[in-house]
Specification:
CATH architecture of the largest domain: Up-down Bundle
Number of domains: 4
CATH class of the largest domain: Mainly Alpha
CATH topology of the largest domain: Rhopdopsin 7-helix transmembrane proteins
CATH superfamily of the largest domain: Rhodopsin 7-helix transmembrane proteins
Helix content: 40-55%
């Protein structure tokens, strides 16, 4: 609890002020208050009234220069002077012209005095009941006047008096030079506030200024012209002075407002009494009683003074309860406990975050399955290492939904940028590099081998990530994201991450990569690719490009046209991530899961199966010059065990095709108990080197060239399968030992290889 001041001399005075009256005062002006009130009230508020007293003093000086005894001894004239002065200004309580001892007629003292009483004005001679010579307001003025006589330069005055001849004709006299001792406001004196016991019986302040009499150009102090200001009409300002104020206020900082939550506000017109203030709530706090009208929400100063007295006396009080309550977070000012910040829709956010976390939780499971089945031919053909990078980037692309879940701050805005850009670079960078490898091999027109390993792609991906990280570091130094404050239509505050030229630069860089990806996708659209993976990659790139354009246009409109709800932005980002990252993962991994399942369930109808209708192999390689084929995807560094399995499977495929055609073209064999069919199962393996005659039966009507995906294998040149003569075409399949390419050749009229 903090008040503006404790109990001190001023507080003690203010506590007695209201009980001090004509019945318990002592005659005179002994009860006084400090000089600070003079500065506050006399030299500031009532200077205009004091200037009237100065004018009246200069008038009296001129009167007492005249050689007009009749006027100078006319008491009614001087009574009229003070009466007129009181009537001229409502703030003047009393006015008087008090003469020095023996200066008026044969009176010892004479002081025409007019003052207000019960709505009227009373005129009297104050000296009858008030010996004023020794009091401050007269004594100091007398001393000042005597000093001014010897130091003040006289003001020259020229005049022409009107004269009249006997016949009634008027004319001016000769030009006469005169001199006057004129007073100014600064020559006067304000007394300290006092209780005028026996006079007006009120608290008052007196301003007096000397006037003089001139005899033959010699001046002497004649008396004082003064006014009394009733302090009952003056408000005691107990509030604090402004920090840059040079004014003096003896009552400053004496209010009893609890300054932690309230501030003092002076109430004018309550008079010279304590409690002339109210305690209103500071900005950031609100009045606890919400039932009151807004204009009535304050603590009354008089009640604060009363409760403070009880508090200091140790009696039951409510002083410490007279405070305001803090506003909700983000409110500079408030009228109640309602929030000034737009409340986030937490149920919707929780639902969206739960959905996103569910999608994120699937990524580690997919990564584990890729690692576990990395030897599977389907995954091997798709480069498991690059699939891992794609999954890691996708996980980063999901993370901004977690960061954006909370209210925007500089930290969350920075994390959002880092996670988004790194995730995009890693995930889509890997996709683009895979497509680039297909394009690079497909466009080769010479017989030379193009060999691009996964490690080569990973190195290029690392360069892209390093460039992105460098860009982000520079942005954190020169253009760190900030939080912008806006207002909704309901005048509620909204906090959003800034969207500036750095974000435009990031969007442009992403669009550049995506456009390059579109170009690559168009180039490889006709390139044969195992399991159609390049086609799914192209779909993911097209999808990301279109939605990225939509997202950036949406953010631009929301940022620069109107501040939107953070929940709307959260929903937009959820939809965007779901339609890009999630769809990309579905394109790439759901098809692989299906093919792996199909391969294990139907080995004969898997990757090496033969179509009954076409009678051809389903394996694909990109065609090169000279009838050679080069693998477009997959790791080229497989073990010999895998090679043997591939060759064995190819041989089994050809054996099945042979048996099928034997049955169709030689129905008489079936009548012999199928001995010929049985013999087909005894055909040698591709690597046995046997020349079984039964292998020389017709195999196909027409065997056209087809591409074949083979792991790198080293077998002797011209060491291949049996070739079966046909009326139209014979073929030979060969794996070259140097460049690991598979070759299919037409061998018309050749019966064996």
């Amino acid at each position: 609890m903090t008040t503006a001041s404790g109990v001190d001399i001023i507080d003690s005075f203010l506590q007695e002020l209201e009980t001090y009256n004509a019945d318990n005062c002592k005659p005179g002006t002994a009860t006084k208050l400090g000089p600070g009130v003079v500065q506050q009230y006399g030299k500031t508020r009532f200077r205009k009234e004091a200037e009237l007293a100065v004018e009246r003093a200069n008038l009296l000086t001129e009167i007492w220069k005249l050689d007009n005894l009749q006027l100078q001894t006319d008491e009614q004239f001087f009574y009229a002077q003070v009466l007129n002065l009181v009537q001229s200004d409502a703030d003047i309580f009393a006015a008087g012209n008090c003469y020095n001892k023996g200066e008026f007629k044969d009176y010892e003292l004479f002081c025409p005095y007019a003052y207000r009483m019960n709505g009227s004005i009373l005129v009297k001679d104050l000296s009858v009941e008030y010996p004023y010579l020794g009091y401050e307001w007269f004594r100091i003025v007398r001393e000042t006047g005597q000093e001014l006589i010897s130091h003040r330069n006289l003001t020259k005055v020229f005049n022409k008096w009107r004269l009249q001849m006997d016949n009634g004709t008027s004319y001016h006299s000769q030009l006469n030079m005169d001199a006057s001792l004129l007073m100014t406001y600064d020559d006067g004196h304000w007394s300290t506030p006092y209780f005028d016991c026996g006079g007006g019986n009120i608290w008052m302040m007196t301003y007096t200024v000397p006037f003089f009499q001139s005899i033959n150009g010699s001046y002497r102090f004649k008396g004082s012209s003064g006014i009394d200001i009733a302090l009952q009409k003056v408000d005691i300002d107990q509030c604090s002075l402004p920090a840059d104020s040079t004014d003096t206020n003896v009552f400053a900082n004496t209010s009893k407002c609890l300054l932690e939550t309230t501030e003092c506000r002076t109430v004018r017109g309550m008079g010279f009494r304590r409690g002339s203030y109210i305690c209103i709530c500071k900005p950031g706090f609100y009045f606890p009683n919400l039932q009151l009208a807004i204009e009535d929400r304050y603590f009354n100063g008089s009640y604060m003074e009363q409760q403070f007295d009880l508090y200091t006396q140790g009696k039951k009080n409510s002083y410490e309860d007279l405070h305001c309550l803090p506003c909700k977070e983000g409110c500079d000012v408030c009228e109640d406990d309602r929030s000034c910040i737009l409340e986030l829709n937490w149920p919707v956010r929780n639902l969206l975050l739960a959905a996103m976390c569910t999608a994120m939780s699937v990524i580690p499971l997919i990564a584990f399955l890729v690692w576990k089945h990395q030897e599977d031919v389907v995954l091997k053909a798709a480069s498991p290492k690059l699939l891992g990078f794609i999954l890691g980037g996708a996980f980063c692309l999901y993370c901004p939904m977690i960061v954006m879940y909370f209210r925007a701050s500089v930290l969350t805005c920075c994390l959002k940028v880092w996670l988004r850009e790194l995730g995009f670079t890693i995930s889509y960078g890997a996709l683009l590099l895979k497509t680039w490898r297909i394009s690079a091999v497909f466009k080769v027109t010479t017989a030379s081998q193009i060999k691009i390993r996964d490690t080569d792609l990973i190195k290029r991906l690392a360069i892209l990530v390093a460039i992105t990280a460098l860009f982000l570091i520079i942005r954190m130094v020169w253009g760190r994201p900030s939080v912008e404050e806006g207002k909704t239509k309901d005048d509620l505050k909204v906090y959003q991450c800034s969207f500036n030229e750095w974000d435009y630069g990031q969007a442009a860089a992403e669009l550049f990569l995506l456009v390059w990806g579109i170009k690559l996708s168009i180039e490889v659209r006709k390139a044969p690719s195992q399991f159609n993976e390049s086609q799914f990659i192209s779909w993911a790139i097209y999808n990301e490009t279109l939605l990225a354009i939509f997202l950036n246009l949406t953010l631009f409109l929301l940022q620069y046209i109107d501040f939107s709800s953070p929940d709307v932005l959260y929903l937009i980002n959820f939809i965007y991530i779901s339609l890009t990252t999630t769809v990309m993962l579905v394109f790439l991994f759901s098809t692989k899961a299906y093919l792996m399942y199909k391969t294990k369930k139907h080995p004969a109808g898997s990757r090496g199966s033969v179509s009954r209708r076409s009678g051809v192999s389903q394996f694909k390689l990109a065609p090169k010059s000279g009838g050679e084929f080069t693998a477009l995807d997959g790791d080229l560094d497989n073990s010999n065990t895998v090679v043997d399995k591939e060759l064995k499977r190819v041989y089994e495929e050809l054996s099945q095709l042979k048996q099928q055609l034997l049955k169709e073209n030689n129905p008489h064999l079936m009548q012999n108990g199928g001995s010929k069919t049985h013999a087909q199962h005894n055909c040698p393996s591709p690597t046995s080197g046997s020349n079984n005659p039964e292998c020389d039966s017709p195999l196909v009507d027409t065997l056209t060239e087809k591409t074949l995906l083979m792991p790198n294998n080293i077998i002797p040149e011209n060491k291949g399968f049996c070739a079966f003569p046909d009326k139209q075409k014979q073929v030979r399949i060969t794996v070259a030992p140097t460049n690991h390419q598979v070759k299919i050749e037409d061998l018309n009229n050749v019966t064996a290889v």
